[in-house]
Fold this protein.
Amino acid sequence: MTGRSDIGTGTAGRGSSGGLPLALAGAAAAVALAMVVGHRLIGTLPSAYVVSVFLVAILAAAAAFGPWSGFAAALGSFFAYDFFFVEPTFTFDVADPREVFALGVFLAAAVLTGVLAGRLRETADEARQRAETLSLLHDFAERIAVTTDLDGIRALAVRRIAAAIDGTAILVDRLDEAGAAVESWPDPVTPTADELRLIDEVYATGRPSEAPSPRFEFRPLITAGGIVAVIGLGPGPHRRHRAREQALPALIDQAATALERAHFAADRAIAQAAADRERLRSALLSSISHDLRTPLATILGSVTSLRQLGDQMEPADRADLLAAIEEETDRLSRFVADLLAMTRLEAGLDVRRDWVDPADPVAAAAEHLRRVHPSNPIRVRIDTPPTAIRGEATLLEQVVFNLGDNAAKASRPGAPIDLRVTRDGQRIVVAITDRGRGLTPEEIVRLFVRAQTRTPDPSPETHGGLGLAIARRVIGAMGGTITAESPTPEGRGTRVTLELPIDPAGEPPPKEAGEP
Amino acid sequence: MTRRPQILVVDDEPQIQRFLKPALAAAGYDVIRAMDGAEGLAAVRAHAPDVVVLDLGLPDMDGKEVIALVRRQVDTPIIVLSARGEEAEKIAALDRGADDYVAKPFGIGELLARIRVALRASGGGGVQASILTCGDLSVDLDAHRVTRAGEPVKLTPKEFDLLAHLMRASGRVLTHRALLARVWGAGHTEDTQYLRVFIGQIRQKLERDPAAPELIVTEPGVGYRIRYDAPAES
């Protein structure tokens, strides 16, 4: 009985598909071991017991190395038993005719045992491989299901497929005419011109490349909807993981489905973005047309009223109509300036990058604000030595004016508007603060994107207008940011803050020692 | 003159209100202001104005909804203020029961003319007359006779029908759909080419220069109106 334990665990562990040489070597080893054990036993037990030792050896070889090993062990055992243990020993002759019958039975039993045990081994192997394949696929499916971004899916697919072939894999995902996303694992790979032709061919035919490139075999990732991407399978150092290779077609299928899903999602996102842009454009257009029409309607209406009915009007009414014309003309000209700035930015024309001391445009904007909003004190405080930022002074003035204009509209008569310029590290901070009614968080979000479509303009007390959309773009073009908070830390009103980067090259040179 | 006609102006733009009030007052009307739809509806109930001037873009509700709500209570003439280029909006407003429109921006004369037409139409009486006149054009509805400057003009029955509807509206705009439904029947409301052809034929027979029509005014994308000439309140 010792024989079984020796042989049973000896070589049966790994090597699921070692090939015929290993099977024969295993068979030889098993038979040799059986002979040694049989030789020990022959003195104490009848020779018939030795037969069972050989059977155990055959069983072990078959179980460890498959049916061929079992068959070889059976033949080997037959001859070895005949040669060493059947009188006359050390010949293949058989003295006792009864032994011939026994040997025949032994051979038959040996072969049968060997083959059957081997089959069993094969079936077990297959089952294990199937389980391994399934768990591999399951794991891939689970991971890819929770991956939503295209890059993530591409990376995961190419890694798993590379692991499956135990080599290098490359995924080529064409986005449009312009380009393709290429992902490879484990080594970074750039397709050669020949390989690109093969990839084109796979894309065109939807079939694996027929002429294999020296490096890769290209296969399509295909779904019912068509070809999704192309995967190149490079020869691995050793492709011997059968379970993983069996998983390959399914892995490729799953990757195709996941990629297709991600493509759809990406297309949807693009369509969504386009729709958003369109909605914004139409909202902007309706807002612009309203902002242009109202002053025009007021001007035309006032002028025609004065001409046709001026004689019947009170002097005070006539004066008011003239004032309305003046105010609306000013409003219109500001709006046209905004529109021109917007058009310039839209057209991709850059903001000029002059040296600007932010204190200058802020002072100019304050001057303009005092004219338009005489009832609100405009208080300016510059808490920074002369500094230079890169930008365009007139646009910056327009932005500060727009923000101050909004602030004044949100304020009661007499309530001050504060314009303050400070320095925070390498940034210039311009804060426009009012003491008005303040804004809800939602209004702050909406502040910069005017999105109402039906009802045109908000009442004049609210912040709004084209000005803020422009403000954000202008400040962005100057490398700065614009934020709003309400209520202010002081507890009420709204503060809009511009932050602009200081250009170190524009700083005044450090004072020399000894200079005042 | 007993009392000055009252005009309710529903517009959320203070600047528009600012010039309309003195202008309409100088033209002989009393002006009531409303800054939004709810205020406007309340003013219709409270003051029973003679004409409502309504901006379609209101902050609290759609102007077309205001029209429908006013129409449930009274048939006060409604003149809509709307932007140029918003033909669909104008037609929808007219379909809901608005009587006429003025496109912004407008000269005060245009609005006053519409207000006069609206006041005359609601003044009653005139529409019942069997002989309608407009300048030197005269249309006898009973006798089916049309004269221009005393000269008889021969119109086909459909042409006469079309002209009679425009005359009865006495200066108010009639939409393509409304004219087609009344003259050709409800099944032909999309056949605007009929209208173009027949209006063209009428102009050939009536207008001094058919290429520059004076009597039948085209409101592009909306409909047609008869040019209203003021001295008709006899």
In short: The CA atoms of residues 44 and 70 of chain B lie 7 Å apart.
